[in-house]
Write a structure and sequence with these properties.
Length: 430
């Protein structure tokens, strides 16, 4: 069978894994970032709620003559996917155990699939995948040219997270039980990536040091994995970007300094303990600062991500975050307006919060009022500017940088209001 996998905009790891499974079943598989209709079956891999509203994706699906099956993180709310896109079925969980059956026999009787029949949505719960070692993914030939936050590709080493952060899809999609791949399976994949010209590889999985976790951290497994991958790729090409502040220690940080580009990104989210509690981060501002100091003491550079405009965030909470940034002097900063992803606890919080308590729907009346933006956008913008002035070597704010950050804050605000629109439309399912 001729199968076209489409991963719009970026080759997601999941789409390449599915491609490898189908290739090994003897199908002729092509994977593309562009919307192409060549295939007896089309698999559409979507990672963001906003992609459901993308006019080009909607038109593509409506005109497709072959069956279109949709998968990826959006599958957590299949009613929303089926309501917005004219696809034939949605894979609701981890797709590798069902993809061959779905493609070869259609959706009926398969676990973890939702589809329409006689005007009704039929859905069956996903059965889960115990062993996550998999066939060699189908890596497209232009993968070496891709750049996602500086890496050509993010590879998966494990699934699941112990955390329960309200805004995050990882524990809801993959669960809180950690399942790791074998080191051999990962190493074989990284060798293949190197052979085909991929240089920069990032290890993903929510929190990298959970690799090998079984009732407790398995630091030896994590450190051995870094050492092996570093020998193959060279330390300048290996990164371990995302880490929880309470899952690093001296040995882990030393291995990160020794075997990788020597950078970490912590999800700090806020400088207010009240907000961290609302977000169920499971750590405090003091824990966050301790992790910065510990990483620095090992010569590891630290970037951090922050969330602003969380429902109920007050100006005081926001100012505490600015203070934290000033004290932490981070090497890099990412700021996002809280996005209520369907299937997360934040989606319910967002629906239940009156507009007047939600910074995304309140007009900003402070220093940036002339810009006519929402309070959440103003905080996002101010925090991005602040992040620059708090770097170890502060960057001057040029007119171009000012406009870039302002546009970024505005566009985040607009996009997330669209997500709220979808949440309201499908409120009984999120
Ligand atoms: S620690 Fe990271 S991956 Fe885990 S739930 Fe929180 S945000 Fe998600």
């Amino acid at each position: 069978m001729k199968i076209q996998i489409i991963s719009p905009g970026v080759y997601t790891y999941g789409s390449m894994v599915l491609g490898g499974i189908l290739r090994d079943r003897g199908h002729s598989v092509d994977i593309s970032k562009d919307l192409r209709r060549d295939g007896d079956v089309i698999i559409l891999s979507l990672f963001s709620t906003l992609q459901l509203l993308d006019p080009s994706i909607r038109e593509f699906v409506s005109k497709a003559e072959s069956p279109v099956y949709c998968g990826g993180p959006v599958g957590i709310c299949p009613e929303m996917v089926l309501g917005e896109l004219d696809v034939d079925a949605v894979a609701m969980g981890e797709g590798e155990s069902i993809i061959a059956m779905l493609v070869e026999n259609g959706p009926e009787g398969i676990p973890g699939v939702a589809y329409r029949k006689d005007g009704k949505i039929i859905r069956s719960e996903p059965s889960g995948v115990d062993v996550i070692d998999h066939a060699m993914p189908l890596f497209p030939s232009d993968l070496p040219a891709q750049s996602v936050r500086g890496a050509n590709v993010y590879i998966e080493t494990h699934r699941g997270c112990l955390g329960g952060c309200t805004f995050c899809q990882v524990p809801r999609f993959f669960g809180r039980n950690i399942r790791s791949r074998s080191l051999e399976n990962i190493v074989a994949e990284v060798r293949e990536l190197k052979r085909m010209g991929v240089k920069r590889v990032a290890v993903s999985g929510g929190t990298a040091s959970l690799f090998g976790y079984r009732n407790s951290l398995n630091k030896d497994a994590f450190i051995s994995m870094l050492r092996e991958l570093s020998v193959i790729l060279g330390k300048r090409n290996l990164s371990v970007p995302d880490m929880r502040v309470d899952l690093v220690d001296d040995e882990i940080l030393e291995a990160i300094r020794e075997c990788t580009i020597g950078w970490l990104f912590f999800g700090f989210e806020s400088g207010s303990d009240r907000m961290l509690k609302l977000m169920r981060k499971g750590v405090t501002v003091r824990d966050n600062m301790r992790a910065v100091e510990l990483a620095r003491s090992h010569g590891v550079k630290v970037g951090g991500s922050f969330i602003v405009g969380y429902p109920g965030e007050s100006r005081e909470d926001f100012e505490q975050t600015l203070d934290f940034m000033e004290e932490a002097m981070l090497d890099d900063v990412f700021v996002s307006i809280a996005e209520p992803i369907p299937g997360t606890p934040l989606a319910r919080v967002a629906l239940d919060t009156p507009s007047e308590d939600n910074p995304l729907f309140c007009e900003h009346s402070g220093a940036f009022r002339a810009l006519k933006i929402s309070e959440a956008e103003a905080r996002c913008f101010e925090m991005m500017l602040h992040g620059e002035s708090c770097k170890p070597v502060p960057r001057a704010i040029s007119e171009a940088l000012y406009s870039t950050y302002l546009n970024e804050a505005r566009s985040q605000g607009e996009d997330i209001r669209k997500v709220y629109g979808l949440l309201n439309k499908y409120s009984e399912f999120v």
